[in-house]
Amino acid sequence: MFWYSVAIIWASWYADCVSCLLHANNVCRQLRDYSTIETNTNCSYNPDVGSTPRLIAKRYGYPFENHEVTTHDGYILNLHRVPGPRNTISKNGKKRTPIFIVHGLAANSAFSFMQGKKSIAFYLADSGFDVWSGNLRGNTYANKHINGTVSNAEYWDFGIEDIALNDLPASIDYIACQIGEKGNLIYIGHSMGTTVSYIYSTLMRKHAGENLKAIISMAPVAYMTNTQGLFKTLAPSTELLTGILKSNGIYYIGQFPFTFPVISDLCGKYPFINLCNLVTILAGGYSESQFQAEILPVFWSFYPSPISLGILQHFSQFSGGRFARRDYGPSGNMDRYGSDIPPEYDVSQIPVPVHLFVGQYDAIATLKDAEHLESKINSGSAVAKAKLYMFPYDHNNFYTAKISKPLFKTIVQIART
């Protein structure tokens, strides 16, 4: 009996310790507070760090559905749906305008849930929309194939155009099938999510015209002549670096779920949180008014998802001033396109309105390049035209900004027009 009582006491103590450890402070209001996170009253516990879209939605009382989509070429993707506002059931019978959110480079659908109850997915759901957050092949929630796994080199043999011509139409068709209608879908892309939308809507113009009502581009990436920061520095070396990686049997960069704790422990904690934050600033710019130190551990628990080397190679081309198809060299281009150089994407033929949301402090998707894209889209005979909007954001602030309501309200206004 004595040892039984000791065991019970020990088990209770152990459970309390585990609970304490699991709920230890993991976010702080200021960067400097992270050095004393354990005892600092400006720090607290955020359960969303390292969480999943399903758990985050459940935590804040929103309905959530996971839908599995298989593309024409066999990649298996997951769509994360918030079909209605807080404290409602999924099947409430009410028709809502569908919104399809597509993440950027090395991101995933969790970005739509990054700010907890203030996230874009929840705001739009509360505003009366049927919100679908997509996942593009290779990322944390889209890392399966009908014929193999992510450890297979063939799995990673894809680029931006493969995503645009397979992942987008498969996801869009699936959403249309689920809701029983097409032609009313609002597409919201961020960064690479904008790039693939332009490729899709030019090369699959008919499909886009039949399914989309409008494209909203947060941090639009197409022409990258004026891109600054790390991307500009590394772009000229991309072919060399990817060649070295491939020669060593590495076909992607990023992390998978089992490595997330490593990145989260490094970039979400002192002192590395300062270094990792500096990297994001050098890459995407910095908006002092929108910076939130509290969001950094959440951000680094979701980022970076794996990306193929083919994606990086194609993106590096855009810095040359042409928004064109993948360059395979003169001989390869002749075989594929019938010309020595790859043809440009004719964005003037996009069949739906394009709303370009530009960050004032964005080092990647700059105002000058967005204005050039706007003029290119508006140069055609297509009825749909582009319109440019400015926000006091850097590249990632479209998901992480301290003040997001002006952005969200603009989206709602466009979606209801």
TrEMBL record:
Which processes are annotated in GO (biological process)?
lipid catabolic process
Q: Where is the active site?
A: 191, 362, 395
Signal peptide limits? 1-17
Q: Which SUPFAM superfamilies match?
A: alpha/beta-Hydrolases
Output the Gene Ontology terms for molecular function: hydrolase activity, acting on ester bonds
Q: Which UniProt keywords apply?
A: Glycoprotein, Hydrolase, Lipid degradation, Lipid metabolism, Signal
Q: Is Transmembrane among this UniProt entry's keywords?
A: no
Pfam family for this entry, one: Abhydro_lipase
InterPro entries found in the cross-reference section: AB_hydrolase_fold, AB_hydrolase_lipase, Lipase_euk
Say if the entry is tagged with keyword Repeat. no
Tell me what this protein is called. Lipase
Q: Which organism is it from?
A: Ceutorhynchus assimilis
